[in-house]
């Protein structure tokens, strides 16, 4: 399944220029630009309705833009015919808001959906083996593979959705609010898993989230959507230098300060655990 020899070597696996998305007269994005760096977790934030999901849908070809260009792995996907981009589409995985698992399929069968779609020649035994491997990789117990989504907790369903998103060994992962609805401990565990998988598998991640803890804990950079554009992109300290009112309110508000304190405490705990025994001063 690996795209080994195809692995993208460029600096920006996603390049968006002059993107305009609209529904009738309602313009969601107006001349939006964004570049996503290889190997980063890019958090995408913005007020409700600013077009985060529409942006993700445009990148994966589910929303036809009115204007502009989107390149993924150096290939222009806007205006391309579906069969021209098939070699790009099997290099990304998507976890939609809510998980969007097929309720009538087991977790393993859900994971096999993209495998069967892109590799119809795969034998049953191999499909079983790959799906079991993906399930365990996302921290689910092996017996979760034969369960139906309704038999899983919310956090387990998210992991199952992630297992399906990873089915094709993607280089690029799109996640739409993956920790929404999880309790803070479950959300923190999911964040940890995502950071670990990103680093070990060399993924690039486009992560839509409202979760400030996630932004502080695992995102390398954050892109802010407002005024129909990406108004800023950078690390959180870089964003704090912006005087845009939404950015100031979002990253300087009480919830952001609490998230920052939580992150500092977690870093301090991790550091003290790294110290050799007897060196806890
Ligand atoms: N298929 C559609 N037809 C018409 N309008 C749409 C459609 N899809 C999205 N929109 C509108 O586009 C705007 C952006 O929607 P989108 O779902 O991208 O927002 P969002 O930033 O992801 O919001 P949230 O944080 O609440 O999930 C919204 O006003 C939404 O109503």
From TrEMBL:
InterPro entries per UniProt: AAA+_ATPase, ABC_transporter-like_ATP-bd, ABC_transporter-like_CS, P-loop_NTPase
Q: Which residues form the ABC transporter domain?
A: 14-252
Q: Name one GO molecular function term.
A: ATP hydrolysis activity
Segments carrying the region annotation (Disordered) are: 262-281
Which PANTHER family does this UniProt record tie to the protein?
PROTEIN TRIGALACTOSYLDIACYLGLYCEROL 3, CHLOROPLASTIC
Asked if the Swiss-Prot or TrEMBL record annotates the protein with the keyword Repeat, the reply is no
List the keywords (alphabetical). Answer: ATP-binding, Nucleotide-binding, Transport
Q: Which Pfam families match?
A: ABC_tran
Lineage of the source organism?
Bacteria, Pseudomonadati, Pseudomonadota, Alphaproteobacteria, Sphingomonadales
Which residue windows does the record flag with biased composition (Basic and acidic residues)? 265-281
Is the Transferase keyword given for this protein? no
- Domain of life, per UniProt, equals Bacteria
Can you name this protein? ABC transporter ATP-binding protein
Per the UniProt record, the source organism is Alteraurantiacibacter aquimixticola
